[in-house]
Each structure stands twice: as C-alpha cells, then as structure tokens.
Amino acid sequence: MTGKPQPAVGTVCFKGDDVLLIRRGTKPLAGDWSIPGGRIEFGERAEAAALRELAEETGVTARLVGLVDVVDAIFTSRTTGAAARHYLLFDYAATWISGEPVAGDDADHAEWISPVRLAELPLWDETRRVIAAAKEMVSKSST
C-alpha cells in the first residue's frame, strides 16, 4: 500500500504522579493501552488537536506544557510485511485541569494510572519512553 503519513497527536496528561491512559476500542490497536490521541483535522493546529482529542476520548481538560517528541508509528501488513499505516505522532505533555476520565470516541476505557501500575502494563516501548520524557518535562515546568 502506498500513501502519505497521517499527522496525529497524543497527550500525556498528568494528575499528580498519575498518567491518563486509554484502552483503544478500534483498530489498529484495539485493546491496547495508550495515551489519548488521534488525527489532526485539516486546518487544525496540532496543540488544539491534542486538547480536542484528550477531551473527546476521556472527558478531561488540561493545560499543555510542551511538545515532548515526534514519533513515527508504522504498522505493517500481517500478510505482506509492507507498511500499511503510517502515523506521525506529535506527543504533548499536559497537566490536568478538570474532569474525570470517561471513555469516549474510539476509546473503550480511560483511567488515571499510578506509577506502580504503569510499570506493570504492557505498553509500546515508544509510549513508555514518551511518558517518561513528558513526566520530566512536567516536573521541570513546576519548579
């Protein structure tokens, strides 16, 4: 399959030491835990998309702290091994303002995850790295 990378966002939102994660309800990652996020709409700024996706998937509002990283998420075909989907993820760090997690949009579950539980969850290595980098960014911004 040929195509173009799809621009998307993720928001690593913290409430104290807990991070807000969702369990995906749709393909390609149905059932997997991840940070809330999704595609950037045409004409939408990345920062606005990050806050919109956070609200749509979790019902939570937050304040963005900054851009953590830009990550390639490339999914391959199980039959051919060729790239089937390619997302360019703009991942932002954020701190909670209001709202309690309620799964919405394409998430089937949303919850605050403690550091102890986070260590036990099966996560993509890049997700784990971005969460750690976001936590450092949030800690530095509050000092």
Q: Strand tally, please?
A: 7
Number of domains: 1
Q: Give the topology string: H per helix, E per strand.
A: EEEEHEEEHH
Rg over C-alpha atoms, rounded to the nearest angstrom: 15 Å
Explain what the structure shows.
Helix content is 25%, strand content 43%. By secondary structure, the chain is an alpha+beta fold. The protein has a single domain, classed as Nucleoside Triphosphate Pyrophosphohydrolase (Alpha-Beta Complex). A hairpin with a 6-residue loop joins strand 5 and strand 6 (83-98). The protein starts with 5 loop residues before the first strand and ends with a helix. The relative contact order is 0.27. The mean pLDDT is 92.
Q: Helices and strands in order, then pairings?
A:
Elements: E1 6-15, E2 18-24, E3 33-34, E4 37-39, H1 46-58, E5 61-76, E6 83-98, E7 107-113, H2 115-120, H3 125-141
Parallel strand pairs: 1-6
Antiparallel strand pairs: 1-2, 1-4, 2-3, 2-7, 5-6
Features:
seven-stranded mixed beta sheet, 25% helix, 7 strands, 143 residues, Nucleoside Triphosphate Pyrophosphohydrolase, globular, alpha+beta
Concise account of the structure shown:
With 143 residues, the protein is an alpha+beta fold. The protein has three helices and seven strands; from the N terminus they run ββββαβββαα. The termini are far apart.
